[in-house]
Backbone:
């Protein structure tokens, strides 16, 4: 080997090493830029999630308040008086048959109906299925269908009665229908 070739090889090696270092530095800079962009996108998504969460919480609060106001209005509407019942029904016998209650006077009918309303008892129209025909038994003036559903024990702990089940399902219906895309 000659003396001239040795320094040229070192210079070329240094140049290659410098190019490699610059290349690595460029890749690190590009990776840092990508990381900054990705971090920015993640933070933007997190902010959007927080905004949606706040909006959803606000909607839930509004729905619950609306339910409470509606429940208050409904409970106030179902206060019966003797005069109201006498206007609605010709005789005490008609009223007793309509509500399927055994009472001896208009006053006792009013007391039973108002007690049921204050306890939030909802009496539904029952439907009994026998073979191929349906026999309806009118319980009150509401025309609701009674459906028997069997709850698993863990669900029954959370929803101890039909009112709780219905409220939960209505709430779920409202939330899902409002959040459809």
Residues:
């Amino acid at each position: 080997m000659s003396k001239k070739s040795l320094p040229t090889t070192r210079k070329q090696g240094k140049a290659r090493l410098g190019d490699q270092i610059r290349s690595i530095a460029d890749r690190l800079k590009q990776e840092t830029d990508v990381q900054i962009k990705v971090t920015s996108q993640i933070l933007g998504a997190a902010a959007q999630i927080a905004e949606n969460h706040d909006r959803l919480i606000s909607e839930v609060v509004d729905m619950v308040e609306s339910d409470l106001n509606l429940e208050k209005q409904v409970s106030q509407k179902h206060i019966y008086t003797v005069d109201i019942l006498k206007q609605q029904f010709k005789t005490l016998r008609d009223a007793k048959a309509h509500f399927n209650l055994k009472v001896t006077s208009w006053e006792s009918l009013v007391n039973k109906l108002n007690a049921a309303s204050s306890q939030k008892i909802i009496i539904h129209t029952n439907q009994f299925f026998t073979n191929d025909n349906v026999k309806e038994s009118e319980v009150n003036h509401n025309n609701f269908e009674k459906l028997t559903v069997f709850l698993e024990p863990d669900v029954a702990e959370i929803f101890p009665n039909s009112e709780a089940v219905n409220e939960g399902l209505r709430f779920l219906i409202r939330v899902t229908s409002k959040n459809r895309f």
